[in-house]
Amino acid sequence: MKNKLALISVYYKEGVVDFAKSLVKLGYDITSTGGTLKMLRENGIDAIDVTELTNFEEILDGRVKTLAPQIFAGILYRRDKKDHVETVESKNIRPIDMVVNVLYPFEETVANKDSTEEEIIEKIDIGGPSMIRAAAKNHKDVIIVTSNKDYNEVIEKISSGKDDYNYRKELAKRAFIRTCKYEIAISNYFMRDEGDFKDNLLLGYEKEDELRYGENPHQKAAFYKPINDDEFEKLNIIQGKKLSYNNMLDISSAIDFMKNFTDENTVIGIKHLNPCAIASDSDLETAYDKCIKGDSESIFGGIVALNGEVTKSLAEKMTSFFLEIVIAPSFTEEAIEVFTKKKNLRVIEYKELGINNKKTEIREVFGGILLQEKDLSLYDSLDVVTDRKPSDKELEDLIFAYKVVKCTKSNSVCIVKDKRTLGVGLGDVNRFFASSHALDMAKDDAKGAVVASDGFFPFADSIKAFDEKGIKAIIQPGGSIKDKDTIDYANKHEISMIFTNMRHFRH
Q1: 272 tagged catalytic
Q2: What is the DSSP secondary-structure string of 349-381?
Q3: Locate the MGS-like domain: which residues (predicted)?
């Protein structure tokens, strides 16, 4: 009786020699191709050239080497069917009991900006996926290995007699997942010129981690990252408890929000995916002090995001009360030492805070998913629609305030003075409610401040309420059928008003 036969053809050679030697000790013969065959023979493994099985030499620069009936019949025939067995014996086809194939690095080649189209096309593996799928289909009789990370596990299972049907089925599952990811990458490459809104949206995700829990402790949750996407690796979790579902949402919001504030040191306090306070200043620590002053109560148990380096003195301020997360592009060693006193506080470094990357976003809805462009612009134009023009100082605060409402849930209205939020009304079903909420937070500080709204004011009631508190500058998208009413009120009471002609609803 002949030894079992393992066909090994891998692009990445790491670990393959030791793996093949272990298989030989377990009674396997080895057949191989090209560079893999050469390496195995150079390391003392008496591997069989696959051409001895096919009776056909490798041709077309390696494009055709395993695509032969002798190979696929040896993999696919059913050992429990008499006519299958008789067929392969009559054709003098040797059974192949294991296929080891690590595919050409198509994904890595595409990711390399220096790769030419010819280089990319040549990394589309043909024989590899075909053999993998054949072996995975016939997993009852054939072991399929698609990653060098599985080598030690496979040897251990065979050595201990645990390479049973269930284990082979698990390897088959891994194999089909691998070929699926591979085909998605190739398909997306060929659809690259179709823009973001393709006729077919092919997505592939892999689990990165189990989370502590979901939105509530009784809900399970996990984090999945896109295949071949290293965005998550840019997060360096310096310390703290395991992340929860809500933590991941807050971190994502912090990164997105900060992309609106790249021109000055900025600190954002976030709670439940909304900014409870935002402040900017030429000095980061001053910006932090202004932010906390903006809403010192809501930030308790929330997240603080900063777009500059966190120093020891800043860290000491942030550890004086309860925070869930601090995220910044860098921390001094002294600051990290301070944070260690709050072991449950999650301290996260994200080098690219403030850089736009993703241009689209996906949300799941009943029956499917929605895809849209991210809201990356701030305004279409700045049109002063009133007789009174805002001062330079007011204009600076108005633009800052408009950035804030861009980050908040609709309906949103915020009151700002000296690049600091005094009051943020958000998530209301009525714009007057949002205006009232913001005014309640700002109290007497509202006098001399400015106001921003993420959508138009449908009536002049909010404008009247702002005027009564001494606010004389407003920025909004415009576009209401009653714009004239709000403009007339503003002119009558010497309020300056700017239309941006760009709405920023955030549902």
Answers
A1: yes
A2: EETTTT-----EEEEEETTEEEEEE------S-
A3: 1-146
